[in-house]
Amino acid sequence: MLTLTLLGTALLLCPHGGAGTLCYECPKYHLGLCYGDMSSCTLWHRQACAVENFYVLTKKGRSKYHYSRLSCMTNCKDINFSGFDRRTELTCCISSDYCNLPEGL
To answer: What is the pLDDT of residues 4-30, one digit of tens each?
Structure first.
């Protein structure tokens, strides 16, 4: 009986079953700080934690880091987008909770 009570309490406190991976959400992340509201999201079907790194291209063609966006993203795939004056790098992960925190930026 105690086991059923504990199981029921766990399901009430963790409505997703406690199995969902958690990710950071931040609209503008730069050098360890979130400019906006830092929150978290839980992964659902076909989602991954995502880091979108935005770069500005210099006149010499080099990439200069500008900022990152952290989120949960559906159908996320690692990819690089390049334009004339900017580059976006998308990195996805599902390996562990909060795996989308950029390192070294």
So the answer is: 333 343 333 444 444 589 999 999 999
Residue 41 near residue 76 (C-beta atoms within 8 A): no
For tokens 């009430």, the residue is 12
Query: Structural domain boundaries of the chain?
Result: 20-93
d(CA 57, CA 87): 7
Nearest residue to 89 (alpha-carbon basis) of 99, 72, 77: 77
* pTM reported for the whole predicted model: 0.77
User: What does the DSSP assignment read for 26-89?
Assistant: EEEEETTEESS--EEEE--TTEEEEEEEEEEEPTTS-EEEEEEEEEEEET---EEEE-SSEEEE
Closest CA to 44 of 11, 9, 68, 76: 76
Distance CA 62, CA 22 (A): 34
